[in-house]
Predict the 3D structure of the following.
Amino acid sequence: MIWLAWRQFRTQAYVVAGVLALIAVAYALTGPSLVHVYDTSVLTCKAHGDCSSVLANFAARDHLLRDLALAVILVPALLGLFWGAPLIAREMENGTFRMAWTQSVTRSRWITTKLCLVGLACVAVAGLFSLMITWWSSPFDTINNNLYSYFDLRDIVPVGYAAFSFSLGVTMGVLIRRTLPAMVATLVAFTAVRAAFTMWVRPHLLSPLHFKGPFNLNQGGGIEVPGRGQSRDWVISSLTLNKNGVVIGTNGGIGPNDEINFHPGAHGGTVLQGVGTCPTAIPPPTSTGRGVSNGQPSPAVQHAVQKCINSFHMKEVLTYLPASRYWTLQWYELALFIVMALLLSAFAWWWVRRRLA
């Protein structure tokens, strides 16, 4: 039975192995040069005082291969579509499963062999591809302040996604018994589960930490945890409170559009929209560039802005997951998707063994 299952699957396996080999060659040829550029320019940019331009130039490198790295989020879905859904559905649709069952092969052995052979291949493909992407992208990830922004695309969680997608495809094929409808159902169900897990489950897998302190405007963009500088933590939620404890903003912004807007007020004053009038006017940057330094507000303008914000005694309440819990979250999510994959596989095995005539 193993030999027969391999003969049915070997063409797909050879094609995917060839694609992985080509990607591995491309990454192997460009990876060492990326590390060299990172070591000789990015790591030394502070000594030359020109980090902004160096980081921008480095981040612009190898766009084609970086776009290919995004495919790691599609690989599990494709494995479920083209390896999982047709695995049993095609046999049922064509009636070829009866030939195996009328020989010495039992239903249990038939379904077990197929699940193990192709399922392990799915896990191996997703694992190898994720490993290559993680290794090649490591210099770019090092300069990324948001460690969790590429959580779905790196390390071990794609293995869990692939196992779940494959088992989901097999289950849909067993229930629907037609290949194309099973593929469509697999795609819809997998997309829905991944989206729901990302939005509603992952933020609650680990107990987050909380921070409450004075509101500080990050005039360079992004969210900072006060007192800790630029952070690679995952900020789950950010609330801005006025001096009475009323929420007036979210995600580092204030007002209905979650932005921080200053505009001229009466008698030459400056109004912080949604909060009130600043005690002193803030000089706006002029068309000649005065009040602007290196694309950012000048220190005098930044000081006036922060002085205005301080006068309102606003507080910032952050709910976040520290960078130190990144690998713990990876293992938790991997375990959950593996468990779901095993449950789906067990259900498909039982359905073939007991329910299919």
User: Anything to note?
Assistant: The CA atoms of residues 157 and 333 lie 7 Å apart. Residues 2-42 form the longest helix (41 residues). Residues 2-206+325-355 form one domain. The chain is about 60% helix and 10% strand.
